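Dear Dr. L.,

I hope this message finds you well. Following up on our conversation about the binding site, I have prepared a predicted three-dimensional model of the protein together with zinc ion. For your records, I am including the exact sequence and ligand specification that went into the calculation, followed by the structure tokens. Please feel free to forward this to your student if that is useful.
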Amino acid sequence: MTDAAPNPLLTPSPLPYLLPPYADIRAEHYLPAFDAAFAEHKAEIAAITRVRSMPTFENTMVALESSGDMLDRVARTFYTVTSADGTADIQAIEEALAPLFSAHNDTIQLDSALYGRIKTLNDQLDDLDLEPEQRYLVERHYREMTQAGAGLDDEAKERLTALNQRLSTLTTTFEKNLLADTNDLAIVFDDAAELDGLTVGELSATAQAAVDRGLEGKYVVTLTLFTGHPYLASLTNRTSRKRILDASRSRGSRGGEFDNRGVLREIVRLRAERAALLGYDSHAAYVTADQTAGSPSAVHELLRRLAAPAAANADRERAALQAIIDTEAEPFALEAHDWAFYTEKVRKAEFDLDRAALRPWFEAERVLQDGVFYAAHELYGVTFTERHDLHAYHPDTRVFELHNDDGSALGLFVLDLYTRDTKRGGAWMNSLVSQSRLRGTDPVVVNNLNVSKPAAGKPTLLTLDEVTTLFHEFGHALHGLFATVTYPHFAGTAVFRDFVEFPSQVNEMWIYWPEVLANYARHIDTGEPLPAEVVEKLAASETFNQGFATSEYLAASWIDQAWHSLTTDQAAAELDVAAFEAAALADIGLDNPVVPTRYSSTYFAHVFSGGYSAGYYSYIWSEVLDADTVQWFGENGGLTRENGQRFRDRLLGVGGSMDPLAAYRDFRGRDAEIAPLLERRGLAG
Ligand SMILES: [Zn+2]
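The resulting structure of the complex is given below.
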């Protein structure tokens, strides 16, 4: 073994903006750096709790916010890579690290002495002479540690830890069962004629899937996470459509080893017990207490309000589809597996729009520079300079330096556009360095997408969905970049889950804004702008099929709320999963048999194995603010520096440093109204 170079993770990066020195970091540096960082963090917390004098803002809160610097640096550097370039050795480290990291977090979050000091400060809030951000910092830390269980006695803490461990096992089991049953339920077709309507490429994919399963000569359709399936829109054979939808809806509820009904009942029961231990009536009450929603009743009120008009629209859409079927040679009553097929017929007839043919107008570099960056410049005065001398974790990453219009430096934006085998699916934003006045740091944020890389020398032509994703993720990036907070706890996107999608949803409004669209959507060969009639068709088709889309989303949100609103007594009963779900949907009027829920309980991974329990409502919750904000921009002249600055100063910049709804009120001049959302989704009546 050669003399090892010093571990570059143990000291702050020498690069501009503290961009991690990835060129010098090797996989074997991570675990020793985490070890050192855990030890340092524990020592820093011990130093806070050892202090004999009364807790003060300085000796407790400032010390707490200054602690964990190395852990923050190492974790951000590492987890950026696990998601975007998770090679086998990185994955092995991640697996080894998971229990260590969660044990470390428990140690800090449940530390009684630390909690006692923060509680003392929280009890005296009115007597302390604190700035608003300082006051909110005390409140938030107190709240978060209380929610985690730091205030419980030792016996209750022990039960809490046991519940957490059992829940962690159960959610993993749920996920494994779902994956296994999904694979098991792939549908085998003997004859290509049964798959009439698929494209040549799709058909050969099903033939290949059969070969992969040792079923040469047959055709295999694998299921997606949703209830619906993309092929349902094009398959002409009703029996084939029915087989696919039935298989999808039966996941996790067929009996046998992959059945999730018992698993989810126990998850629901234990979550209710944990909530009761922490002083709440239900898991939904526990979760929403620490969101902008505040309580389950606020969530239920919104969902109920939207459900009736959405269901009515879906029924009108059903009638229109039925009318087409009635003109056919052998009419029949529309069923759930027919919906997508007839919807597609209407879409083509009504809008005459081939979305795939639009790609030559969306060349990636032009969309980025003349669309995404252009809109940010017009609104916020930001300029972008590519730093070819700086590199992140992979050769495909590009680094841009941002400046304000007064010339001051703002931070770095890292773009990682392309898909690769080591990158997880989807698109996301994360921070490599978060802004903080206390630490003297400027932000370094990353956007990841999964765009296919073109052949060498060819341009990257985006789909309309990819253009939307680029604007969306850049909205999250701006939230991180514009942060002007003192304490790192509050930087940028460190806001409530039911608020965090709001800025990114708003940034999507500029995609179709005439000045922006005209600037970036130019044909790759001719430079011609997107024809006006195409723009009109796109705008018109935006609201198409919204009754169905809104209904299936609301149904899933309601099922999530129904399970997690149970008290411990109610959850103790041996509930029949299908009957419980049916009763819940009937209760809110979303029990239309031809409009199934987006997910049924037994395959609802977001809430039984992901992080969205009692929180699937978040998407529509933040869309209320989004639609209201889009209306505000529209009423005030749209794409102007003045409008952008107001949104930046009063909303994006404050991050999590104040009550987000108070920030919204400050920006908008009033609370959000629901009318713009109703209008957008065609629910105004
Ligand atoms: Zn998002």
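In brief: The first strand starts at residue 187 and ends at 189.

With kind regards,
A. P.
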